[in-house]
Amino acid sequence: MNSQFKMLFRFTITFAVTLTVLLSGLLRQANAASPVTYTVAVGSFTPYGIEVLAFGPQTLKVHRGDTVKWLLGGPHNIHFHDAPLKLTIKSKIDGKDVVELNPEILMPTVKSGDKQQAGANSGLPLGPPPGNEPPSFSLVMDLAPGSYTYICDIHPGMIGFIQVEEDATAVSSPDEVTVQGKKEFDSAIANAEKGWMELLKKPAMPAKDGAEVAPYAEFGIAIVSQFFPQVTTIQPGLTVTWKMPAGIISPVAINFPLSGPMMPPAMPMMDSNKMPHFVLGPDLIANIQSGADFPKDGVVHSGILEGGQSFTLKFNEPGRYAYYNGFGNQIGAVIVMPAQSR
Ligand SMILES: [Cu+2]
Q: Residues 301, 326: contact at Cβ < 8 Å?
């Protein structure tokens, strides 16, 4: 009995040792696997105004030394820090007062293909990339295991996570990651379509004290780029307030009247020191205070409204007033009824 036990014991030890050697051999093989490149989608559009403002997949697990390549589907940056920077700043360029896109957002702190480092920012592409390549930005994740958070400064709420796993931990293949990213975006779009249909069931509320317009409808990580409602009807003497939801949002700028052809919202330029800037055009710079009466000349620039901000105008004269988003692709109207229709 005792010798049997010893034999079993010896066998167990031998088996365990053999298994360990075998396994560690396998693991070493896994470790020795050459680094791979993962692709993360950055935002996405539908042809009909539903936009995903997210990184897909939101969470990516990699091994040390792998590369992450972000495919830029719009004006986004990749920034490894915790809170979005202020979108615009007032500054002087060659002695001239301007409002410009925050240069800290615009200017890259690392080159595509570099190793990730704390605070790394891709900056914003100033033009289309050479050739027919879609715009992208890559970093090598030569990092200790742990979770690394990044954001887009343009769209507060766009947040992504790179999880660097121990070499022994299995992670998805690049193909699986691409499929996962697409799945997350497809489901966000489906969710927004459903939300939009639900929104249509809600009756428009008659404006008693003043009307409210939402510049976007948000559904999770997707937005519908339309004014809600698109046409606002009020009695003379009432106000209209454009109210931005807080969260994952695209900035908006309310502009009266329609005045196409549209100016680009911001113009790239070089200063005398050859430093690039993105200077805001008149459609993005406020010419009137929120709460003011609609001006006699009919020209209104609300300035940029970000998440949580609002802009109010008071309409005293009956008429039809059309407006647009200075960032493009959205029009709306305010109809002020004749006083006798009260
Ligand atoms: Cu963004």
A: yes
Q: Residue 245 corresponds to which tokens in the numbers above?
A: 């939801």
The pLDDT of residue 339: 81
Q: What's the CA-to-centroid distance between 293 and ligand 1, angstroms? A: 34
What pTM, to 2 d.p., does this model score?
0.83
Ligand 1 centre and the CA of 33: distance in Å? 33
The rounded percent of the chain whose pLDDT value lies above 70 is 86
- Which of 103-115 are b and which e, b meaning 16 or more Cβ less than 10 Å from the residue's Cβ? eebbebebebeee
The full DSSP string for 293-322 is BPPTT--EEEEEE-TT-EEEEEE-S-EEEE
Rounded CA Rg of the chain: 27
Q: What is the tens place of the pLDDT at every residue in 207-229? A: 677 899 999 889 999 999 999 89
Q: How far is the CA of 333 from the centre of ligand 1 (A)?
A: 28
For residue 244, the CA-to-ligand 1 centroid distance in Å is 17
> 8 pLDDT exceeds 60?
no
Start-to-end CA span in the chain (Å): 104
**The pair of three-digit structure tokens given for residue 79, joined into one six-digit string:** 């920034």
Reduced to 3 states, what is the DSSP secondary structure of residue 132? coil
Enumerate domains of the chain plus CATH numbers: 33-179 (2.60.40.420), 205-336 (2.60.40.420)
Give percent helix, percent strand, percent coil of the chain, each to the nearest 5. 20, 35, 45
Taking CA atoms, 152 is separated from 81, 84, 124, 182, 325, in Å, by 9, 7, 10, 19, 21
Which residue spans within 87-237 are E strands per DSSP?
88-93, 96-101, 136-140, 146-151, 159-165, 210-213, 217-219, 222-224, 231-234
Whether residue 289 contacts residue 227, with contact meaning beta carbons closer than 8 Å, is answered with no
* Residues less than 5 Å from ion ligand 1, measured at CB: 76, 152, 154-155, 158
Task: Report yes or no: 265 and 253 within 8 Å, Cβ to Cβ.
Answer: yes
Phi, psi of 175 (to 5 degrees): -65, -45
- DSSP count for the chain of H helices, then E strands: 3, 21
